[in-house]
Design a protein that fits this description.
GO biological process, one term: microtubule-based movement
CATH topology: Kinesin
Pfam family, one: Kinesin
Largest sheet: 12 strands, mixed
Number of domains: 1
Number of strands: 19
Structural class: alpha+beta
Strand content: 15-25%
CATH architecture: 3-Layer(aba) Sandwich
CATH superfamily: Kinesin motor domain
Radius of gyration: 20 Å
Bound molecules: adenosine-5'-triphosphate
Helix content: 10-25%
CATH class: Alpha Beta
Family: Belongs to the TRAFAC class myosin-kinesin ATPase superfamily. Kinesin family.
Order of helices and strands: EEEEEEHEHHEEEEEEEHEEEEHHHEHH
Protein name: Kinesin motor domain-containing protein
Biased composition (Low complexity): 1-13
Distance between the termini: 32 Å
Shape: globular
Number of helices: 9
Length: 397
């Protein structure tokens, strides 16, 4: 294992642009003033006038299988593929959320999901593009399942590695076809309580060792942030998707977890996997966020638990710092995958998740404007992004 390479400079444009806020609270629209993409996406799921590739943030929803053992109640979620709308049936009527794509895992397995919504972005990374894929949703909604897969089907991490490392060339050790000369540097970080930990590091190294007496396995190395990078983060290099993916999944288990009423293995921290492709300058950031549920829904009580949940939410600012390039670089794309359950009992969390996605679409991004300069004078939360929609008030990612 080695230390993280220095970052390559991101490309900048002279004309920062401001994205329009949505027409209504629940609607996500593409701005109609932007130039049409000369190379539109071949993805047939996208029916908007502009392709999602034009918009810096693409938001799709993935609805997990009905949880095993739970009584199946009348469905409350309905996809309308003709306009990529997800309709939620609430007590007082319907609410439509206009997204860039909707996928039910009962109808589309991880393979189809990846091909439809993720593959084209990974092809871009292979050619030198930068892309961030974020998993957002309440505990148990399938974020880690989509990211890492299960014994039957691999998730986005493995599939992306395989996509980047290629289909041409000679056979690799696992029977995979390797693209000659291509390799990746991989860093795996955990963000918890506003601290960044190096999940790949097994010793003190250059970072600061810290103990996890209750739920961690041994010591984790805490890292300092320098610029937009985690200083001295360990990375692994390789060209075999299978081996790298196994290593990532092994160290991901070192994340802070705690069982809740909703999920036996509930992630309490954000996990950030950074895949660099040095030969072309491509970069893929995969973020498995901590469960978004609030403390009561997670079934915890007590002061300590409340403190813990409050700090999970605060953790977003450190995350934003590390993702700053994605938000500022005009060429970098962000794919937000909203995970939700079809269970009517989860409707409140599902609506909150979809609303969060709608807000994410309204982020103002200007290549030359440091994030802190976009915040109002009254804001002391430098390093976070404010959503420019007055109907919500400031919201931070
Ligand atoms: N689409 C799916 N099909 C089948 N099982 C699923 C699906 N999504 C999730 N699961 C299962 O549900 C459980 C919870 O899923 P997962 O751990 O991915 O949730 P999560 O959103 O990452 O939760 P947390 O935020 O608490 O970590 C796991 O046992 C997982 O295997």
């Amino acid at each position: 294992m080695a230390r993280t390479p220095s970052s390559s400079s991101s490309s900048k444009s002279n004309h920062p642009h401001v994205l329009k806020t949505p027409q209504s609270k629940h609607r996500i629209n593409f701005s109609s003033t932007r130039t049409p993409n000369p190379n539109p996406s071949p993805n047939p799921n996208y029916t908007n006038k502009e392709t999602p590739q034009d918009h810096p943030i693409e938001v799709i929803s993935r609805i997990r299988d009905y949880p095993e053992g739970k009584e199946k109640l009348a469905p409350i979620l309905q996809a309308k593929p003709e306009n990529n709308t997800l309709r939620v049936r609430a007590d007082i009527g319907y609410r439509d959320f206009s997204l860039d794509g909707v996928s039910f895992s009962e109808e589309e397995d991880l393979d189809s999901f990846y091909k439809k919504f993720v593959e084209s972005r990974i092809n871009g990374v292979k050619l030198g593009a930068k892309c961030t894929i974020m998993m957002y949703g309440p505990t148990g909604s399938g974020k880690s399942h989509t990211m890492f897969g299960c014994s039957k089907q691999p998730g986005i991490v493995y599939r992306s590695l395989k996509g980047i490392l290629g289909e041409e060339g000679s056979e690799g050790g696992d029977g995979e076809k390797l693209q000659l000369g291509t390799f990746v540097h991989v860093t795996v970080l955990e963000i918890y309580n506003e601290e960044i930990y190096d999940l790949l590091s097994t010793n003190g190294g250059g970072g600061i060792g810290i103990g996890w007496p209750k739920s961690g396995s041994g010591y984790k190395v805490r890292l300092e942030v320098m610029g937009k990078k985690a200083k001295n983060a360990t990375f692994i290099s390789g060209n075999e998707a299978g081996k790298i993916s196994k290593e990532i999944q092994k160290v991901e288990k070192r994340r802070i977890i705690k069982s809740t009423l909703c999920n036996e293995r509930s992630s309490r921290s954000h996990c950030l996997i950074i895949l660099d492709v040095p030969t072309v300058g491509g970069r893929l950031m995969l973020v498995d966020m901590a469960g978004s549920e609030n403390i009561d829904q997670a079934g915890q009580s007590g002061f300590e638990a409340k403190m813990q949940t409050a700090k999970i939410n605060q953790g977003d600012s450190k995350l934003t710092m590390l993702l700053q390039d994605s938000f500022e670089d005009d060429k970098s794309k962000i794919l937000m995958i909203l995970c939700a359950s079809p269970d009517p009992k989860e409707i409140h969390k599902t609506i909150c998740t979809l609303e969060y996605g709608a807000k994410a679409k309204c982020i103002v991004r200007g290549p030359h404007t440091p994030i802190k300069d976009k915040l109002g004078a009254e804001d002391s939360s430098a390093g976070r992004l404010r959503i420019q929609d007055s109907s919500y008030g400031p919201v931070y990612l």
